[in-house]
Design brief:
InterPro entries: Rhodanese-like_dom (IPR001763), Rhodanese-like_dom_sf (IPR036873), Thiosulphate_STrfase_CS (IPR001307), TST/MPST-like (IPR045078). By secondary structure, the chain is an alpha/beta fold. It is built from ten helices and eleven strands. It has two domains: 110 residues, 3-Layer(aba) Sandwich (Oxidized Rhodanese, domain 1), CATH 3.40.250; 115 residues, Rhodanese-like domain (Oxidized Rhodanese, domain 1, 3-Layer(aba) Sandwich), CATH 3.40.250. The protein is 27% helix and 14% strand. The protein has a five-stranded parallel sheet with strand order 1-5-4-2-3. Helix 5 packs across helix 9.
Length: 264
């Protein structure tokens, strides 16, 4: 399996790679329209809401994991089949496209995020995906955490949302403000500066400060289980492999009567 992050030079040196545009917007903008208006040359379109998540519900959160069948059908339609090597990008430093990459890697597929400034998204050519078949397979239980596990206090838990949302100061998306008691704030957007991933020593220091140790289990969550994938991939890149995703994340937790913490 390839490293969780690769740069444009690596992509150019590996012409068989499938480049995937996996943008996602929380403000209602259409990702399909954004893709049509301009994307990286040759990139296929991957719909997060359509392929990478099931319909939202208070019980499951805003972006529950897709069924294996829906995920496989969406990827097949995008020209991504079994054994393909995928490099995904978005226009938000990779924090949205990380969902696609993490899901693929969780299934043992070869996938990475594109690291570094994107350059202009100015290719408007229609990309017709090559025929492909992605086989449905169950999500591996050892890569996921339940709501009970996320608040049990037995392993380190990191929150990938912006720090103000973690503190409960600026919640405009989910039912309640705050965070899971005992969680530590590791905002995923701070893993990246000017479109490029921080150097490994700086990333390692971030995760060590949050209590992570190499070889030890930890759980990551965010608002809806999307951007937490960026913390998981970045932690792996920095030497902290084996983290688990809490898919329901704060959008599920906040819809319960479980206690919420605020502040740092």
């Amino acid at each position: 399996m390839i490293e969780p992050f690769v740069d444009a030079a690596w992509v150019r040196a590996n012409p068989g790679v499938i480049l995937a545009d996996a943008r996602c917007y929380l403000d209602g903008r259409s990702t399909r329209e954004a893709y049509a208006a301009g994307h990286l040359p040759g990139a296929v379109y991957v719909d997060l809401d359509g392929y990478l998540a099931s319909p939202a519900s208070p019980a499951e959160g805003r972006h529950p994991l897709p069924t294996p069948e829906a995920f496989a059908a969406g990827l097949s339609a995008a020209g991504i089949g079994d054994g393909a090597t995928v490099v995904a990008y978005d226009d938000a430093g990779g924090v949205m496209a990380a969902r696609l990459v993490w899901l693929l890697r969780a299934l043992g597929e070869s996938a990475a995020l594109l690291d570094g400034p994107l350059g202009p998204l100015d290719d408007t050519a229609t990309v017709v995906p090559a025929p492909a078949t992605f086989t449905p397979r169950p999500w591996p239980a050892d890569r996921l955490a339940s709501i009970d596990e996320a608040c049990a206090g037995t392993v380190s838990v990191i929150d990938a949302r912006p720090a103000d949302r973690f503190r409960g100061e600026n919640e405009t998306v989910d039912p309640r403000a705050g965070h899971i008691p005992g969680a530590v704030s590791v905002p995923c957007r701070e893993n990246v500066v000017d479109g490029a991933l921080l150097p490994r020593p700086a990333l390692r220091a971030r995760f060590e400060k949050a209590g992570l140790r190499p070889g030890e289990d930890f759980i990551a969550y965010c608002g809806s289980g999307v951007t937490a994938c960026h913390d998981l991939l970045t932690a792996e890149n920095a030497g902290f492999a084996g983290g688990r995703l809490y898919p329901g994340s704060w959008s599920q937790y906040a819809a319960t009567d479980r206690p919420a913490a605020t502040g740092d």
